[in-house]
Amino acid sequence: KQEVTQIPAALSVPEGENLVLNCSFTDSAIYNLQWFRQDPGKGLTSLLLIQSSQREQTSGRLNASLDKSSGRSTLYIAASQPGDSATYLCAVAPSGGSYIPTFGRGTSLIVHP
Amino acid sequence: DGGITQSPKYLFRKEGQNVTLSCEQNLNHDAMYWYRQDPGQGLRLIYYSQIVNDFQKGDIAEGYSVSREKKESFPLTVTSAQKNPTAFYLCATRTGWEEKLFFGSGTQLSVL
Predict the structure, then answer these.
(1) Which residue of A has its CA nearest to B40?
(2) How far is CA B109 from CA A41, B28, B76, B100, in A?
(3) Among A48, A69, A109, B46, which is most buried by a count of CB atoms within 10 Å?
C-alpha cells in the first residue's frame, strides 16, 4: 500500500526565504503527483501536476520536481511571501487500477513579515 | 462560472439523524470523489464514482452512503450509523485527460 510522507510537518520562515517542501512515497509505480495548497477552513487548490514521465513543472515562483526512482518530490517556493502561508499537500496517484490518489498529511507553512 | 459547489458550508447533526451534503459540478467531469479530513490528518477516501450510476467504496465508507443519478451531482449522506461524523468533508472531481483533481470549498459537519 502506498504511503506518503511530508516533512517537515510545520515550517516557519521570514519573508523572502527560498523554501523546499518534501514529499516522499514508498511505491514508485505512480501515474502522477499533484501539489495542493489549503488555507484554513477552505478546500484544496491545485498548484502543480507532474506526470510520471516528467521531471519538473513550474508555475510562477513555484517549481515542483519528481524523482520516481528515489520516491521523492519537492516543491520549491522562491522568495516566500506572507500570502504563501498555508498548508501544502501532495497527492500520489498509482499507475495501475483506479485513479485513487494517496495524500500526505501536509506541511503547515507560516511566512512572517 | 465553472467549478464545484459544496453546500452547506456548515452543518450540524443531532444524534440519530441522517444528514446529506451536497456536491454539484459544472466542469463536465465524469469522476467524482468524497473525502473526509480530520485535524492533522491526511485526506481519507469515503466514496468515489467513475461514471453516472456507478460508485465504489473507499477506505472509510461505513456509516456513509452516496448516489450518482446525474453527472453533475454526487450527494453524500452521513447516516446515524456513523458514530464520529465531526470532520471537514471535501468533494472533488477529476479531469479525463490529464487526470487532475479539483476540489470544492468543503462542508464542516459537527454534532450537536
Answers:
(1) A105
(2) 12, 27, 12, 26
(3) B46
